[in-house]
Specification:
This protein is α/β, with parallel strands linked by helices. It contains 9 helices and 7 strands; from the N terminus they run βαβαβαβαβαβααβαα. A 7-stranded mixed sheet has the order 3-2-1-4-6-5-7, sandwiched between helices. Helix 2 links the parallel strand 2 and strand 3. The C terminus is likely disordered.
Protein backbone atom coordinates (compact mmCIF):
# COMPACT_ATOMS: atom_id res chain seq x y z
CA UNK A 1 0.00 0.00 0.00
CA UNK A 2 1.22 3.48 -0.85
CA UNK A 3 2.54 5.47 2.10
CA UNK A 4 1.42 8.78 0.56
CA UNK A 5 4.90 10.29 0.56
CA UNK A 6 3.56 13.57 -0.87
CA UNK A 7 1.36 14.17 2.21
CA UNK A 8 2.18 15.63 5.63
CA UNK A 9 0.03 14.67 8.61
CA UNK A 10 -0.02 17.32 11.35
CA UNK A 11 -0.99 16.28 14.89
CA UNK A 12 -1.27 19.04 17.52
CA UNK A 13 -0.47 17.54 20.93
CA UNK A 14 -1.22 18.87 24.39
CA UNK A 15 -0.89 16.46 27.33
CA UNK A 16 -1.65 13.36 25.26
CA UNK A 17 1.05 11.02 26.59
CA UNK A 18 -1.52 8.30 27.19
CA UNK A 19 -2.81 8.17 23.61
CA UNK A 20 -0.52 9.89 21.11
CA UNK A 21 1.71 6.83 20.58
CA UNK A 22 -1.28 4.78 19.41
CA UNK A 23 -2.39 7.56 17.09
CA UNK A 24 1.10 7.89 15.60
CA UNK A 25 1.34 4.14 15.03
CA UNK A 26 -1.98 4.11 13.15
CA UNK A 27 -1.04 7.12 11.04
CA UNK A 28 2.43 5.77 10.22
CA UNK A 29 0.89 2.65 8.70
CA UNK A 30 -0.45 4.83 5.91
CA UNK A 31 1.65 8.01 5.85
CA UNK A 32 5.41 8.53 5.97
CA UNK A 33 5.47 12.19 6.97
CA UNK A 34 3.98 12.72 10.43
CA UNK A 35 4.65 15.95 12.36
CA UNK A 36 3.61 16.14 16.02
CA UNK A 37 3.64 19.61 17.55
CA UNK A 38 4.02 19.31 21.31
CA UNK A 39 2.22 22.43 22.48
CA UNK A 40 3.91 23.02 25.84
CA UNK A 41 2.66 19.77 27.40
CA UNK A 42 3.28 19.29 31.11
CA UNK A 43 3.19 15.49 30.86
CA UNK A 44 5.50 13.10 28.97
CA UNK A 45 4.02 13.79 25.52
CA UNK A 46 7.31 15.11 24.11
CA UNK A 47 9.24 12.04 25.25
CA UNK A 48 6.59 9.69 23.85
CA UNK A 49 6.74 11.44 20.47
CA UNK A 50 10.55 11.45 20.55
CA UNK A 51 10.54 7.66 20.93
CA UNK A 52 8.12 7.26 18.02
CA UNK A 53 8.69 7.45 14.27
CA UNK A 54 7.06 10.89 14.06
CA UNK A 55 8.85 14.24 13.83
CA UNK A 56 8.72 16.21 17.07
CA UNK A 57 8.36 19.99 17.03
CA UNK A 58 8.21 21.66 20.44
CA UNK A 59 6.43 24.76 21.70
CA UNK A 60 8.13 25.73 24.97
CA UNK A 61 4.80 27.00 26.31
CA UNK A 62 1.17 26.20 25.54
CA UNK A 63 0.01 28.43 22.67
CA UNK A 64 -3.23 26.67 21.72
CA UNK A 65 -4.43 24.26 19.05
CA UNK A 66 -4.43 26.93 16.34
CA UNK A 67 -0.79 27.81 16.90
CA UNK A 68 0.20 24.15 17.06
CA UNK A 69 -1.60 23.45 13.80
CA UNK A 70 0.07 26.40 12.09
CA UNK A 71 3.50 25.35 13.35
CA UNK A 72 2.99 21.85 11.96
CA UNK A 73 1.84 23.15 8.59
CA UNK A 74 4.76 25.60 8.42
CA UNK A 75 7.15 22.73 9.14
CA UNK A 76 5.54 20.63 6.41
CA UNK A 77 5.77 23.46 3.88
CA UNK A 78 9.55 23.32 4.19
CA UNK A 79 9.36 20.01 2.33
CA UNK A 80 9.09 20.84 -1.40
CA UNK A 81 7.63 17.37 -2.03
CA UNK A 82 4.64 18.04 0.24
CA UNK A 83 1.56 18.53 -1.93
CA UNK A 84 -1.14 17.65 0.59
CA UNK A 85 -1.74 18.14 4.31
CA UNK A 86 -3.91 16.39 6.88
CA UNK A 87 -4.77 17.58 10.38
CA UNK A 88 -5.94 15.03 12.92
CA UNK A 89 -6.47 15.11 16.68
CA UNK A 90 -4.13 13.34 19.09
CA UNK A 91 -6.80 11.84 21.35
CA UNK A 92 -7.72 8.90 19.14
CA UNK A 93 -11.28 9.94 18.30
CA UNK A 94 -10.67 10.01 14.54
CA UNK A 95 -10.14 7.16 12.06
CA UNK A 96 -7.09 7.67 9.87
CA UNK A 97 -8.78 5.66 7.11
CA UNK A 98 -11.31 8.49 6.85
CA UNK A 99 -8.37 10.79 6.07
CA UNK A 100 -7.26 8.49 3.26
CA UNK A 101 -10.73 8.59 1.73
CA UNK A 102 -10.85 12.35 2.14
CA UNK A 103 -7.48 12.70 0.40
CA UNK A 104 -8.68 10.58 -2.50
CA UNK A 105 -11.86 12.65 -2.69
CA UNK A 106 -9.88 15.91 -2.75
CA UNK A 107 -7.73 14.66 -5.61
CA UNK A 108 -10.62 13.21 -7.62
CA UNK A 109 -12.72 16.37 -7.30
CA UNK A 110 -9.78 18.78 -7.70
CA UNK A 111 -10.62 20.50 -4.42
CA UNK A 112 -8.51 22.70 -2.18
CA UNK A 113 -9.84 21.43 1.14
CA UNK A 114 -12.09 18.63 2.38
CA UNK A 115 -13.72 18.75 5.81
CA UNK A 116 -14.81 15.63 7.66
CA UNK A 117 -18.23 15.63 9.32
CA UNK A 118 -19.44 13.39 12.11
CA UNK A 119 -22.99 14.61 11.51
CA UNK A 120 -23.23 13.27 7.97
CA UNK A 121 -21.04 10.34 9.00
CA UNK A 122 -21.16 8.57 12.36
CA UNK A 123 -20.57 9.67 15.91
CA UNK A 124 -20.49 7.34 18.91
CA UNK A 125 -20.93 8.12 22.61
CA UNK A 126 -21.55 11.84 22.16
CA UNK A 127 -23.47 13.52 24.96
CA UNK A 128 -26.64 15.47 24.12
CA UNK A 129 -25.01 18.67 25.44
CA UNK A 130 -21.94 18.17 23.26
CA UNK A 131 -24.10 17.49 20.20
CA UNK A 132 -26.17 20.63 20.85
CA UNK A 133 -23.04 22.76 21.32
CA UNK A 134 -21.53 21.53 18.05
CA UNK A 135 -24.78 22.11 16.16
CA UNK A 136 -24.97 25.67 17.50
CA UNK A 137 -21.31 26.21 16.61
CA UNK A 138 -22.10 25.14 13.04
CA UNK A 139 -24.90 27.70 12.81
CA UNK A 140 -22.65 30.43 14.22
CA UNK A 141 -19.85 29.52 11.83
CA UNK A 142 -22.13 29.52 8.80
CA UNK A 143 -23.54 32.90 9.78
CA UNK A 144 -20.16 34.56 10.29
CA UNK A 145 -18.29 32.98 7.37
CA UNK A 146 -20.94 32.28 4.74
CA UNK A 147 -19.48 28.78 4.33
CA UNK A 148 -22.10 26.10 5.01
CA UNK A 149 -20.72 23.15 6.94
CA UNK A 150 -22.43 20.72 9.31
CA UNK A 151 -19.36 20.16 11.50
CA UNK A 152 -16.91 23.09 11.31
CA UNK A 153 -15.07 22.31 14.55
CA UNK A 154 -13.92 18.81 13.68
CA UNK A 155 -10.15 18.47 13.72
CA UNK A 156 -10.00 16.16 10.70
CA UNK A 157 -9.25 18.08 7.50
CA UNK A 158 -7.37 17.46 4.25
CA UNK A 159 -6.06 20.27 2.07
CA UNK A 160 -3.61 20.97 -0.71
CA UNK A 161 -0.42 22.98 -0.66
CA UNK A 162 -2.07 26.12 -2.06
CA UNK A 163 -4.46 26.18 0.89
CA UNK A 164 -1.63 25.43 3.35
CA UNK A 165 0.33 28.41 2.06
CA UNK A 166 -2.61 30.74 2.76
CA UNK A 167 -3.64 29.24 6.10
CA UNK A 168 -1.79 31.68 8.40
CA UNK A 169 -3.72 30.94 11.59
CA UNK A 170 -3.65 33.63 14.26
CA UNK A 171 -6.53 32.73 16.59
CA UNK A 172 -5.98 30.68 19.77
CA UNK A 173 -7.36 27.39 20.99
CA UNK A 174 -10.33 25.84 19.18
CA UNK A 175 -11.31 29.20 17.67
CA UNK A 176 -8.89 28.50 14.84
CA UNK A 177 -11.41 26.08 13.29
CA UNK A 178 -13.57 28.98 12.17
CA UNK A 179 -10.50 30.87 10.97
CA UNK A 180 -9.75 27.90 8.67
CA UNK A 181 -13.22 28.37 7.19
CA UNK A 182 -12.63 32.11 6.78
CA UNK A 183 -9.67 31.27 4.54
CA UNK A 184 -11.97 29.32 2.25
CA UNK A 185 -14.18 32.35 1.70
CA UNK A 186 -11.37 34.89 1.51
CA UNK A 187 -9.60 33.07 -1.31
CA UNK A 188 -12.55 31.30 -2.96
CA UNK A 189 -11.02 27.92 -2.32
CA UNK A 190 -12.95 24.90 -3.54
CA UNK A 191 -14.25 22.81 -0.66
CA UNK A 192 -16.55 19.93 0.18
CA UNK A 193 -17.64 18.12 3.33
CA UNK A 194 -17.63 14.32 3.49
CA UNK A 195 -18.74 11.75 6.09
CA UNK A 196 -16.30 10.88 8.84
CA UNK A 197 -16.53 8.83 12.02
CA UNK A 198 -15.84 10.13 15.51
CA UNK A 199 -15.75 7.93 18.58
CA UNK A 200 -15.80 9.47 22.05
CA UNK A 201 -14.13 7.26 24.62
CA UNK A 202 -13.81 8.04 28.32
CA UNK A 203 -10.32 9.34 27.50
CA UNK A 204 -11.37 11.62 24.63
CA UNK A 205 -14.34 12.94 26.62
CA UNK A 206 -11.98 13.95 29.42
CA UNK A 207 -9.78 15.74 26.88
CA UNK A 208 -12.60 17.38 24.88
CA UNK A 209 -13.69 21.01 24.73
CA UNK A 210 -15.38 22.21 27.90
CA UNK A 211 -18.63 24.08 27.36
CA UNK A 212 -16.88 27.27 28.48
CA UNK A 213 -15.08 27.19 25.12
CA UNK A 214 -18.40 28.07 23.45
CA UNK A 215 -18.21 31.45 25.17
CA UNK A 216 -14.49 31.82 24.46
CA UNK A 217 -14.97 30.98 20.77
CA UNK A 218 -17.80 33.49 20.42
CA UNK A 219 -15.84 36.29 22.11
CA UNK A 220 -12.63 35.62 20.16
CA UNK A 221 -14.45 35.48 16.83
CA UNK A 222 -16.43 38.63 17.58
CA UNK A 223 -13.32 40.69 18.29
CA UNK A 224 -11.46 39.11 15.39
CA UNK A 225 -14.34 40.05 13.07
CA UNK A 226 -14.35 43.62 14.40
CA UNK A 227 -10.58 43.92 13.92
CA UNK A 228 -10.93 42.90 10.26
CA UNK A 229 -13.35 45.74 9.46
Amino acid sequence: MSKHTDTVVVIPVYNEAGMVSNVIDQVKELFDNVVCVNDGSSDQSAEVIRRSEAILVNHPINLGAGAATQTGVDYGLQNPQARYFITIDADGQHDIHDAVRMLEHLKARDLDIVFGSRFIGTVENITPIKRAFLKLAAVFSSTTTGIKLTDPHIGLRVFNRAFAEELKLTLPDFTHATEVIHRVGEHNFKYEEVPASVTYTAYSKAKGQPMLNAINITIDLFFHRISKK
